[in-house]
Amino acid sequence: MDTLYAQIADDLALDIQQGLYVPGTKVPSVRQLSKQRSVSISTVNQAYALLEDRGLIRAKPQSGYFVRQGANDPIMAPPMSTGSEPAVVGKSELIGRMLSVVNGSSHTNLGAAIPHHSFMPLRALQTHIQKVSRFQSQEVFNYQFSPGYEPLRKQIALRMREVGVRVHSDEVVITQGCSEALSLCLRSNTVAGDIVAVESPCYYGFLQLAKQFDLKIIEIPTDPQTGISLEALELALQQWPIKIIAVNSRYSNPTGAAFSTEKQESLFNLAQKHDVKILEDDIYGEIGFAQSIHTVIKKFDTEGRVMYCSSYSKTVSPGLRIGWCIPGNSLKKIMDLQTFTTFGPASVSQYAMSSFLQTGHYDKHLRNLTTLCRDNIERVTHAVRQYFPVGTKISQPKGGYILWVCLPNNVNAIELQLKSLKKGINIAPGDLFSNSEHFSHCIRLNCALPWNDELRNAIKKLGELISR
Ligand SMILES: Cc1ncc(COP(=O)(O)O)c(C=O)c1O
Questions:
Q1: What CATH number is attached to the domain comprising 373?
Q2: Residue 79 forms part of a structural domain
Q3: Residues near ligand 1 (Cβ within 6 A)
Q4: Predicted local confidence at residue 104, as pLDDT
């Protein structure tokens, strides 16, 4: 549930969008609205500050708040992508440049999709790490073999019910982040040369993982709002011996697209018809905005075909390295593979995460995080509209905290990245997210950063670099 001020801001934003208040007209005064909604003056002030940040209203001294010109202009969304034929992945060197400036650097991190530390429940994590290492030291400092710490698996199995998945805790494997989950699923289901179908654009880490295992990637045309095109996917399934379909069904990295529940079911049916496995990466799934999707493809899996992967890296802390997979009928292979490669993630992280979940504070944290992310997505969207050149297209994510921005075609995002790094700003160039050259003019922006002058100025500076 949203905070009160966010609800009030949303209601007014809807009125503006629907033309109840046209640009130039005055919205209710702070006092009027506080009376109308029976809320405090400070709640209305917070709602109006948010609407100002979103670029919907502006304050006129001594006169009140007015709807901004252009407040209800539609945002131009990036177009459907075109896809490409199966090919081995390249481009790994580009990723190093983006990641190398993350640790210990003073750059504004609009590049890597990492939540700023103020978005993480640091105090609670400190407390739980201390607690488990003090009171369960023998277990915490020992091995925790695959499939991982049972109480944590039980907690995850229970939480999966909220998205329609009923699994036993023995079907859950705790992994070293979502990365290990994806890696185990790929390795246990493919051999070199196999073809994996992905959305276009898609998470760069997945492309690079496929490269490590000598797999070929076929990019399927994808809508930045609704995700992979099932028609195009079916054609590809008819034409190529695809082994796995890998998707972010809820809140794609990088576009924020989400599949409706109906689409999730249709994708499952398609995979069943062609006897192909699905690798579902739901890492942003719990950060859904209004009208978020409360199901996953795994819900429709009656036969162990879907390998579901996720982690707490985006919601709690990437440094804990706690992820999980529910790999269906690949369970045995995956447990063997994990046992004989890593044994599984650090015990202290598993115990601490379980202890944190047990308090019940995770849901409250998620609600706050989701509001923060949604507000920031809107603020950054507004700043991009304000400072970037005409013709810029911006995704409208349904969840998560990243924006996909397509710049005018003549902009080279890799050159932009080099220039912006010199100005202390890190961005992710679109080329990372595809094996093709289709996104050379696009960038991905991380919005899980505190909204302040530094961030606003960084976006303004980027706009200037693009327009030069
Ligand atoms: C879509 C997606 N999947 C997986 C990962 C890797 O997650 P983890 O840090 O839990 O290994 C990321 C990280 O950015 C991601 O965006």
A1: 3.90.1150.10
A2: no
A3: 113, 177-179, 203, 205, 248, 253, 281, 283, 311, 313, 318, 323
A4: 66
